[in-house]
């Protein structure tokens, strides 16, 4: 990745915008979603910026860029119409090791602002690393259409009951299953429909019901030619709920990126065509883990007595099927 994705805590942002035109206005409007710790340095302001300064009581330094005013800020946006001035701003800002963004001059930036889909408190940020802005806009439009406007309500609801659920359901895997069932089912639909009280009552009732212990399982995913686009929806879902994953060097490493981030990873030095590490996978599954075993191609597994004798659920999923 050319850029490392990261979210900044808004309470620590102290921003300086240099410029008073429409570009500066757009940058200020975006920052105002998170903070009012914003200063603007410009000899004059257009009506949009002037309105934002007045309505949010922002600090205005009523002169064009002058060196020596960046010491108290930690984020700088150069939005003037002069490339020379913007270059000078970037030089000072980078020397002070500040977060620096220069409009339309990516070579002077040490960060870029992603495309954003705001479902507060949920935020989806996307970037093409500056290589394909039209493609990025198309992707954003697709996601906007499929993501309900009220999706943030689900996040607020989950946060409110997170500790209650954690106290009632001890296993992390069981909690993941509980929340998926809750948010996908009638409770989630009630929240999106604005029926919050009914949703809360139903969730409390569901917590009072005895929750069965998670059963371990092993899911063999045959990845075919290794193209991640050929993975089935079922395969994606299983991988997102994995507790552990096994794979050898023949498996396309790009597929590993689809595994849940905090799943334990067990790369195998011996090719799966030679040896399947069934014993280790069974031990984890018997502890209640969901184990994903990635296999290149459509390998036919040899009969295994330990696997056949075990009561662990075994699944096989094939790419493209």
TrEMBL record:
Its EC number is 1.3.1.76. Gene3D superfamilies: Cobalt-precorrin-4 Transmethylase, Domain 1 (3.40.1010.10), NAD(P)-binding Rossmann-like Domain (3.40.50.720), Sirohaem synthase, dimerisation domain (1.10.8.210), Siroheme synthase, domain 2 (3.30.160.110). Pathway: Porphyrin-containing compound metabolism; siroheme biosynthesis; sirohydrochlorin from precorrin-2: step 1/1. It catalyses: precorrin-2 + NAD(+) = sirohydrochlorin + NADH + 2 H(+). InterPro entries: 4pyrrol_Mease, 4pyrrol_Methylase_sf, 4pyrrole_Mease_sub1, Met8-like, NAD(P)-bd_dom_sf, Sirohaem_synt_dimer_dom_sf, Sirohaem_synthase_dimer_dom, Sirohaem_synthase_N. It is an enzyme of class 1 (oxidoreductase). This is precorrin-2 dehydrogenase. PANTHER family: SIROHEME BIOSYNTHESIS PROTEIN MET8. Residues 218-296 form the Tetrapyrrole methylase domain. It holds the Pfam family TP_methylase. It comes from the Bacteria. GO terms for molecular function: ferrochelatase activity; methyltransferase activity; precorrin-2 dehydrogenase activity.
């Amino acid at each position: 990745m050319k850029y490392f994705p990261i979210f900044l805590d808004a309470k620590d942002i102290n921003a300086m915008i240099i410029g008073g035109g429409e570009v500066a206005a757009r940058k200020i409007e975006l920052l105002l979603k998170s903070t009012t710790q914003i200063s603007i340095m410009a000899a004059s302001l257009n009506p949009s910026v002037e309105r934002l300064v007045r309505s949010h009581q922002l600090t205005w330094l009523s002169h064009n860029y002058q060196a020596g005013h960046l010491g108290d800020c930690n984020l700088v946006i150069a939005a003037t119409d002069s490339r020379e001035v913007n270059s000078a701003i970037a030089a000072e800002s980078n020397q002070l090791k500040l977060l620096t963004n220069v409009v339309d001059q990516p070579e002077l930036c040490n960060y870029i602002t992603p495309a954003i889909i705001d479902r507060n408190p949920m935020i989806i940020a996307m970037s093409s690393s500056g290589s394909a802005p039209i493609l990025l806009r198309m992707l954003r439009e697709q996601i906007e259409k499929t993501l309900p406007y009220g999706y943030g309500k689900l996040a607020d609801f989950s946060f409110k009951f997170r500790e209650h659920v954690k106290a009632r359901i001890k296993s992390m895997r069981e909690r993941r299953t509980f929340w998926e069932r809750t948010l996908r089912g009638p409770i989630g639909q009630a929240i999106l429909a604005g029926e919050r009280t009914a949703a809360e009552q139903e969730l409390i009732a569901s917590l009072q019901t005895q929750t069965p212990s998670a059963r371990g399982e092993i899911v063999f995913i045959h990845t075919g030619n290794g193209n991640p686009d050929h993975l089935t929806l079922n395969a994606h879902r299983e991988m997102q709920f994995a507790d552990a994953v096994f794979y050898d060097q023949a498996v396309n490493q790009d597929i590993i990126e689809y595994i849940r981030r905090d799943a334990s990873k067990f790369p195998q030095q011996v090719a799966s065509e030679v040896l399947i590490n069934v014993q280790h996978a069974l031990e984890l599954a018997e502890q209640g883990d969901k184990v994903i075993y990635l296999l290149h191609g459509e390998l036919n597994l040899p009969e295994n007595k330990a696997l056949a004798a075990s009561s662990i659920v075994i699944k096989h999923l094939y790419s493209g099927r």
